[in-house]
Amino acid sequence: FLPQDLKGLNFLVTAGPTWEPWDEVRVLTSRSSGKMGYAVARAARDRGAKVTLISGPTGLLPPSGVEFVRVTTALEMKEAVERHFEQADVLVMAAAVSDYRPSEQVAGKIKKGPEKITLELVRNPDILEELGRKKGKRVLVGFAAEAGEVVEKARTKLKAKNLDLVVANDITQEGAGFGSDTNIVTVLFADGRQVQLPRLDKLTCAHRLIDLMVKLIPGREAQ
Ligand code: PMT
């Protein structure tokens, strides 16, 4: 019996990697499995929220009872997030969005040739940073996967992107971050507070994160 503490709220959640094609066969991507973002979507759904899940390519089944939007590239994810942002009370960006994409997509398949070739990359827009500038009353939650000086780097992202909360994964720890069924996170708040969660399966971790987020939602502080 879960609390229905998210009734009446719209949660917009992103998950998984993005794929940035450089020809019609090959892509630039990350090791994100989507498990963390899907767990947040499920947990929010089970607590009564109306959930939209925007997912990059993963091997996971879309959870029932959520509006599911499949995207491939960072630019497609940006377009989909922006389309749903207006209705959202809470945005949770668990996706590992590629910071760069190949400057051009070659038609067909690049043939094997010289020993060394160069792939030119251009910056993708930062979805969260752009939305941070027009957040209004929304609660904005980012994730940060870091190796070394995890808290400092995550706090810099929290400030740069105008977030309410950032969930920092230390990817050097066993059982944390990309691909695993568990996560070990430090949660940083805009007001300087910091909460360390133990190693938890990703669904339990998602519930603990929502417990912390819910108190930041205007009108729900007392829960
Ligand atoms: O998918 P799993 O295998 O379960 O793994 C979970 C995870 C490790 C992918 C996830 O928990 C996580 O940490 N996601 C963020 C990965 C990351 O390093 O993000 P970042 O530091 O590049 O970006 C910080 C924040 O800005 C993120 O919320 C990201 O979604 C967002 N961002 C990043 C780049 C970009 N161009 N646009 C963005 O909105």
TrEMBL record:
The UniProt record lists the DNA/pantothenate metabolism flavoprotein C-terminal domain at: 6-215
Q: Which cofactor does it need?
A: FMN; Mg(2+)
What the record notes about the co-factor is: Binds 1 FMN per subunit.
Identify the GO cellular component terms for this protein: phosphopantothenoylcysteine decarboxylase complex
| Residues at which CTP binds | D99, K109, P125, D126, I127, L128, F143, K157, K161
Q: Please give the family membership noted in the entry.
A: In the N-terminal section; belongs to the HFCD (homo-oligomeric flavin containing Cys decarboxylase) superfamily.
Q: What does this protein do?
A: Catalyzes two steps in the biosynthesis of coenzyme A. In the first step cysteine is conjugated to 4'-phosphopantothenate to form 4-phosphopantothenoylcysteine, in the latter compound is decarboxylated to form 4'-phosphopantotheine. Catalyzes two sequential steps in the biosynthesis of coenzyme A. In the first step cysteine is conjugated to 4'-phosphopantothenate to form 4-phosphopantothenoylcysteine. In the second step the latter compound is decarboxylated to form 4'-phosphopantotheine.
Name the chain's protein. Coenzyme A biosynthesis bifunctional protein CoaBC
Query: Source species, please?
Result: Ammonifex degensii (strain DSM 10501 / KC4)
The record's gene field reads: coaBC
Full-length numbering of the shown residues: 176 to 398 of 398
